[in-house]
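User: Can you recover a sequence for this backbone? Please restate the input before giving your answer.

Assistant: Of course. Working from this structure:
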């Protein structure tokens, strides 16, 4: 009973049907935030953010660490991000390292830090599929022949 950690069933995010948490543009949070679901930030967070899916809107500022399965950044992050799929949108700015399984950085985004791949896990949805945006056509699970692969998009 005491001294044992609680075991929370690991259902998929879709099965949990948890409403997203929202930090609106007029909010400022000082301290760490943890959720098992999705969090959308438009305000300012001074602390670490952990969740299944973390989205920073255009007006968002996070001064701390982000850790999530899916991370989407259109705002500003001063700190390290660790995620499965990491997407940095056109207006996104990251000052810190990005540790990822897959990463997409749109033209216009600013990254001042290092990129470090964790490794590829083919059973995950790609960041492109997650975003459901016009760039979806670019997301393919088929690898190009080695002679056609490039590190430059």
């Amino acid at each position: 009973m005491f001294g044992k950690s609680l075991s929370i069933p690991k259902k998929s995010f879709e099965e949990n049907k948890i409403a997203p948490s929202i930090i609106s543009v007029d909010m400022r949070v000082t301290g760490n935030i943890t959720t098992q679901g999705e969090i959308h930030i438009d305000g300012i967070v001074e602390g670490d953010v952990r969740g299944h899916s973390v989205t920073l809107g255009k007006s968002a500022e996070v001064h701390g660490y982000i850790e999530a399965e899916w991370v989407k950044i259109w705002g500003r992050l001063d700190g390290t991000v660790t995620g499965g799929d990491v997407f940095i949108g056109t207006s996104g700015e990251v000052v810190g390292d990005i540790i990822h399984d897959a990463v997409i950085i749109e033209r216009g985004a600013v990254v001042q830090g290092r990129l470090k791949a964790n490794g590829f896990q083919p059973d995950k949805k790609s960041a492109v599929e997650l975003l459901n945006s016009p760039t979806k056509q670019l997301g393919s699970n088929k690898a190009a022949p080695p002679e056609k692969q490039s590190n430059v998009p």
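That completes the design. Residues 1-9, 133-153 have pLDDT under 50 and may be disordered.
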